[in-house]
Specification:
The chain has 121 residues and is an all-alpha fold. The chain has five helices and no strands.
Length: 121
C-alpha cells in the first residue's frame, strides 16, 4: 500500500480509537465523547498525512518514528492545552496516547508502506 494512503488510513483508525479511549481514561467527558472521537480522528488523519508524506521523501525507520512522535505529540499538546469544562487540563490522558498513535503511524509507514508506482507516458 502507498505510504501516504497507509498513513491516512492508519492515522484515522488509530485516532478514532484514541478518541474512544477518553471514555475509559476520563469518564466525566462522556457527554462530549462524539466530539472527542471526531476531533481525534481528524488529528490522526492529519498526523497520518504528514508522516506518510515524510515517509515518501525519507526512508528511515528511526526518522519516521521521530517525525511521527514529534508531529503527534505537538498536535496532542495543542489539544491538551485547551481547558476542560471544570478549568483543568488532561495533559497525560491526551498527550500519551496521541504520541503512541504517531509512533505507530511513523513505524508502519516506513516499514510496511510502498513507494507509489510511476506511470510511463
Amino acid at each position: 500500500m502507498n505510504k501516504l494512503l497507509l498513513g491516512l488510513i492508519l492515522g484515522g483508525v488509530l485516532g478514532a480509537i484514541d478518541g474512544y479511549g477518553a471514555k475509559f481514561s476520563a469518564p466525566e467527558v462522556a457527554p462530549q465523547l462524539m466530539g472527542i472521537i471526531i476531533g481525534s480522528t481528524f488529528k490522526g488523519l492529519l498526523v497520518g498525512a504528514l508522516v506518510g508524506w515524510y515517509a515518501l521523501k525519507v526512508h528511515s525507520v528511526a526518522k519516521g518514528l521521530l517525525v511521527g512522535l514529534a508531529v503527534s505529540a505537538f498536535l496532542a499538546f495543542l489539544v491538551a492545552a485547551m481547558p476542560n469544562p471544570d478549568g483543568g487540563h488532561y495533559w497525560l490522558e491526551i498527550i500519551l496516547p496521541g504520541s503512541i498513535v504517531g509512533l505507530i503511524v511513523g513505524y508502519a509507514t516506513q516499514k510496511f508502506g510502498r513507494q507509489p508506482s510511476r506511470m510511463k507516458a
